[in-house]
Amino acid sequence: MPEVKKLSDGVFEVIKDKKQLATRNLDPGETVYGEKLIPVEGIEYRTWDPRRSKLGAMILKKFHIPLKENSKVLYLGAASGTTVSHVSDIVSEGAVYAVEFAPRSMRDLIGLASRRKNLHPILADAGKPDSYSHLVEPVDLIFQDVAQPNQAEIAARNAIRFLKKDGHLLLSIKARSIDTAANPREIFKEEVRKLEQAFEPGFEILNAKDLVPYQEDHLGVLAKFKK
Amino acid sequence: MKINTWFGVLETGRTGEILESRLLSKDIRVLALHSLSLRDSRSDLPPERFDPKAAALECGFVASSAEYYSLLHEVTLEAAKHQVSSALTPDQRIIQAVEALDDINETTNSLSERLSEWYGGYFPESGLGGEDLALFIVKYGSRENVGSEDPLHSKARASMGAKLEPADEALLIGFAESVCSLYERRRQIEVYIENSMELIAPNLKLIAGPMLGARLISLAGSLEKLAGFPSSTIQVIGASKALFKHLRSRAPSPKHGIIYSHPLINTAPWWVRGKIARAVASKLSLAARIDFYSGERDHSLPEKLETKVLQIKTLNPRPPQKKQESGAKLKKKRRK
Questions:
Q1: pLDDT of amino acid B334
Q2: Residue A105 Cα, gap to closest chain B Cα (Å)
Q3: Among the partner residues B4, B73, B84, nearest to A123 by beta-carbon distance
Q4: What DSSP designation does B135 have?
Q5: Domain spans of chain B?
Q6: Contacting A residues, span 120-159, partner chain B, CB-CB under 8 Å
Q7: Which among A50, A49, A62, A79 has a CA at the least distance from the CA of A143?
Q8: Are A116 and A60 in contact (CB under 8 A)?
Q9: Which residues does B contribute to its contact with A (CB < 8 Å)?
Q10: Which residues is A12 bridged to in the sheet?
């Protein structure tokens, strides 16, 4: 019988042969991207590959993930829904607003969302929060993984519009999409500075770590509004 | 204050209380289309941290939070489906066709190589290859069937090739038929691309030719993106590896990307190729913009390009003087 350890609300470590990150499958019997399903005492766990998911990598890098069963999440850069599916598992009684700009990825995301009631797909540009402000409620967490050169600015614009005063921002910064030539360390420093200072009231950085060995040239950032 | 939400228009007082509401019916399709119409609206946006769920409950649009989410779920799904289905624009179809063409080229080449290798054992003297060989095999099968009217008749008679057994012959004919149909498909796609380019990007077709134009659209991602690129970007589309090597280290900057296949560039002498590439790229970017924003045909573009190229050639009749022997040698190596 595999052993299950709870890491935080909705996030588990299942030990079967080896330690594996997992969430409880909200859509039993179905896999999303070829991950393994492990039933333990009548509950089905879905393994979560940190090499394919920046949020998964952040959890293994000991980031505090401020998510509860009923959390509301704005997910920017949902892509095909690999990570989104796990967030949907975690906030089983909450809501995920999944914003994605590419129609090709949206095709897969729609397939996923039609099987998960707490997932609301939005095809829009995350840099233009006005275009979906009529849909989204104030959220507890904004997770952003957009690979755009103005990532910090996008995060700020969305946070001002949708993030609750005590809500959190989780950000994955990809150095290569800001400047392919510069040193990633310098870019990370600059992006963190932007988050802290570029707008009112600015973010307080709670944690910032690279995601090695799971992701190359990525920085994970956890932040909230300055008091 | 007037507020647009996905379920209707609200009029709120100073403290955010709802004074008046014009709600839509709970028809998923109606709500989805309304939501899509609000995408580009700049007026009556909800204020920061506005809570549409609380408002929907307050004004009686839904009776419970569960009902709100279930309706929202259906509406966002419907809206997203609508957007996805309208995303397949004519330029996206061209991109699919270009990529299919590349796949077909690759497959046809390796299959016809296999065919010539295979059939070579039975008739090595044929001297045929590619589509000609495939057609030959479909027509005759074994070389023994080559009629006396065929120019290959005597070669087939005297061939040192092995005897083709009936079972092998059937296999080879089937294989050759597949290869023939791939060549056929390739022509069909080329015609399709040519016709589509004429419809959606006539100016680009005029300057670049249908295939190069279609490839540019494909690499850019869409005609809109191509129209948005500066001409310096168009000049090096397809040379990203060289470009990033140049940006990262001291490598020379690329002079041309896929526009190298343009006849004005690949027939030009090497010392003006960069200059001509720049001129061609600038006209390509103009053409893409005209195609995307007005769609009218501008016949003066190719003429202007010819003039410009001629001017470049007359101003630079001879290769530049070599500065240092060693430097010049290096340059030669890079060009290859």
A1: 53
A2: 10
A3: B84
A4: H
A5: 2-87, 91-195, 205-315
A6: 120-124, 130-138
A7: A79
A8: no
A9: 4-6, 35, 38-40, 42, 45-46, 48-54, 69-70, 72-73, 76-77, 79-81, 83-84, 87, 244, 247-248
A10: A6, A22
Nearest to B285 by CA among B211, B220, B239: B220
CATH number of B205-315: 1.10.246.90
Phi, psi at A8, each rounded to 5°: -155, 180
Q: For residue B9, with 0-12 CB atoms within 10 Å meaning exposed, 13-18 middle and 19 or more buried, which class applies?
A: middle
Across the interface, do A110 and B80 touch by the CB < 8 Å criterion?
yes
Closest-CA residue of B relative to A129 is B39
- Residue B327, judged by CB atoms within 10 A of its CB (0-12, 13-18, 19+), counts as exposed
B37-78 tens-digit pLDDT: 999 888 889 999 999 999 999 999 999 999 999 999 999 999
Chain B residue at shortest CA distance from A119: B73
A120: nearest CB among B4, B73, B87: B73
Report the CATH architecture of B91-195.
Answer: Orthogonal Bundle (1.10)
A33 with A52: CB under 8 angstroms? yes
Q: What angle do CA A206, A212, A215 make, to 5 degrees?
A: 100
Contacts of A106 in chain B (CB under 8 A): 80, 83-84
Tell me: the pLDDT tens digits for B265-308? 999 999 999 999 999 999 999 999 999 999 889 889 999 999 99
Whether residue A72 contacts residue A187, with contact meaning beta carbons closer than 8 Å, is answered with no
B-chain CB neighbours of A163 within 8 Å are 49
Q: What is the DSSP code string of B61-105?
A: S-SSHHHHHHHHHHHHHHHHHHHHHTT--HHHHHHHHHHHHHHHH
Instruction: Give the global pTM.
Output: 0.78
Tell me the pLDDT tens digit for each residue of A52-100.
999 999 999 999 999 999 999 999 999 999 999 999 999 999 999 999 9
What ipTM was reported for this prediction?
A: 0.94
Q: Coil, strand, or helix at residue A100?
A: strand
Domains B91-195 and B205-315 share a fold: no
Task: Kindly identify which residue of chain B lies nearest to residue A93, measuring between CA atoms.
Answer: B66
Question: Nearest CA to CA, how far is A199 from chain B (Å)?
Answer: 15
Tokens 């957009």 found at: A146
Q: Are A181 and B244 in contact (CB under 8 A)?
A: yes
**Residue B295: predicted pLDDT:** 84
**Parallel, antiparallel, or unpaired: how do β-strands A72-76 and A95-100 relate?**
parallel
Residue A14: enclosing H or E segment and its boundaries?
strand A11-16
